[in-house]
Amino acid sequence: MQEINNEKEKLEKIEKESLLKKAELEASLKDEKNAVKLVNNYLKSFLGHPELYLDIEEEGASKKISKFVVKRNNQKAKNLSEGEQSLIAFCYFLATLKDISNIEEYTIFIDDPISSLDSNHIFYVFSLIDSEIASKNYKQVFISTHNLDLLKYLQKLTKPTNNKKYNNKYYLIEKKLTANGEATSIITRMPTYLQTYSTEFIFLFHQIYRVATEDQSDENYEVFYSFPNTARKFIETYMFFKYPDFTMKNDKRIREFFGGKLEFVSFLNRINNEFSHGENQPDRLFKPIDIPEFKKNALIILDSIRRNDEEQYYAFLRSINALPHDAISKKEDNILVNSMGTVS
C-alpha cells in the first residue's frame, strides 16, 4: 500500500510540474506574441516597412514549440539586406525592454544601431531611441556610433522628465600605437566643436562671428589664420542655399546678396581668389595675415546677412548662443536676444 502511495505522489508531482511547465510555455508564447506585435508596430509606424513583419510559427504535435519567422508580403522573406536585419533586430531589442519594470536599475548599451542604413532610416532609428529609451528613467544609456548623421541627431536627445541628474556627455574612442607598435584604444572627451555644432555650416558661421567680435590673441589665432578659407566656404554654401539656381553663377549670387558696392565686391574677390589660395601669389604666404581687413570682412558678412534676412541672422545667433555682433563691440551687458530675434 505504501508503494502505491509513493507512486501516486510521484505521478502527482510529475503532473504538477507538467502543468507548471505548460503554464510557463503558454506565458512565454503570450510574451513572444506581444513582442512580435510590438516589433511589427515599430516596423510599420516608425520605420515605414509595413510589407516586412515578424511572425511566430508553432511546431510539434503540441504546437508549444515556436520560432520567429520574418515575412515579406505574407511570404517568408529571403535575402534580407544587412539594413533590414539590423532594423528587425533593433526593434526586437526595444520590444524586450517592455518587460522590464524597474528600469531605473538597468543600464542600456546600444552599439551602432544604424549599421548599413540610409539617412531616412537613421532618423527613424533615432526617433525610436529618443521616444523608447532616452526619455525613460534608465540608470544609464550608452550609445556608440561612427556615423556623424546619427551623432547630429543624438545631440537632440530628450532627457527624462523631471530628472535633473541626467546630463548627456560625449566621448571618442581613439586608436593609438604603443612604443612597441601594438594597437591600443583610449576613451577621451569629445572635442567641443563636435559636441556643440549640429552642422559644419553653423561651425563656419561661428568662426566668422568670432573674427568679427574677438581680438586676435595666442588663444584664438587659428580662427583668424583660417578665416579666408572659412569665409569662402561659408559664402559659397550660403549663396547656393539662398539662390539654388544651377544656371546662376556664383559671382552673380554674391552681387545679388551683397549688393553692387565696390568695396563689397572687392573684398569678396579677395576672399574667393586671393586670400584662400596660394598658387598665384606665393609671396603673400610669407607675410603676416591682415587682421584689420579680416575683421572688416567678417563684419560685412554679418551685416549683410542681417540686412537681407534678419530672421535667419538671429536664428544663427541662437544656434551658437550669442549676442548680435555689434552688441559685443558696444559692451552692453543688458542686451539679450529673445526667441523672436529682437534686441532689448
How many domains would you count in the coordinates?
3
Order of helices and strands: HEEEHEHEHEEHHHHHHHHH
Distance between the termini: 99 Å
Biggest sheet strand order reads 1-2-3
Number of discrete helical segments? 13
Q: Categorize the overall geometry.
A: elongated
| Structural class by SSE content | alpha+beta
What is the overall pLDDT average?
77
Give the DSSP E fraction (strand runs of 2 or more residues). Answer: 5-15%
Overall strand count = 7
What layout of secondary structure does this protein have?
Layout: H1 2-46, E1 52-59, E2 65-72, E3 75-76, H2 82-97, E4 107-111, H3 119-134, E5 140-144, H4 148-154, E6 171-177, E7 183-189, H5 192-196, H6 200-213, H7 221-225, H8 227-242, H9 250-258, H10 262-275, H11 291-308, H12 310-319, H13 325-330
Parallel strand pairs: 4-5
Antiparallel strand pairs: 1-2, 2-3, 6-7
Helix pairs in contact: 1-2, 3-4, 6-8, 6-11, 8-9, 8-10, 11-12
Question: Which terms would index this structure?
Answer:
12% strand, disordered C terminus, three-stranded antiparallel sheet, alpha+beta, 3 domains, 344 residues, elongated, two-stranded parallel ribbon
How would you describe this structure to a colleague?
The C terminus is likely disordered. The longest helix is centred in the N-terminal third of the chain and has 45 residues. The chain has three domains: 83 residues, no CATH class; 93 residues, no CATH class; 131 residues. It is built from 13 helices and seven strands. The protein is α+β, with helices and mostly antiparallel strands. The strands form three sheets. The protein has a three-stranded antiparallel sheet with strand order 1-2-3, with helices on one face. Strands 4-5 form a two-stranded parallel ribbon. Strands 6-7 form a two-stranded antiparallel ribbon.
